[in-house]
C-alpha cells in the first residue's frame, strides 16, 4: 500500500480536528467573525479527507479476497458521520443553539473510526 496516501489522510484528519477545535473555541467565545476563517479552511480540508479516504477505501475493493472490506466500509461511514457532526456542531454553536446530540454522535463515530483505522484495518499502525 502507498504510505503517502495514508499519511496524507492522517495529516488531513489531524489538521481537520485542529481547525475544528480552533473554530469551536472562537465560536464559544462569541467571536463569530474570527471563527469564520478556520471554519472555511476546515471545509476545504473536508475535501482532502474525503478524497484520500475514498482512495484508501477503494484499495480494499481492489484487493482480491480482502477480508477487511466490510470493516473499511464501516470506517468510511463512521468517518463521514464525524465530518457531518463537526460541521453541525460548529453551525449550532454559531447560531448559539445546543449541539449536545451531535457531540454524542461525534464521540461515538470518532472512537469507531480511530479503532478501525488504527487498530483493526491492515493499513493502520497498531499491531
TrEMBL record:
Keywords tagged on the record: Cell membrane, Membrane, Transmembrane, Transmembrane helix
Principal location: membrane
Cellular component GO terms, alphabetical: plasma membrane
InterPro entries named in the record: UPF0344 (IPR010899)
Membrane topology: Multi-pass membrane protein
Transmembrane segments: 6-28, 40-61, 73-91, 103-125
Compartment list: Cell membrane
Family: Belongs to the UPF0344 family.
Name used for this protein in its record: UPF0344 protein SAMN05421663_10490
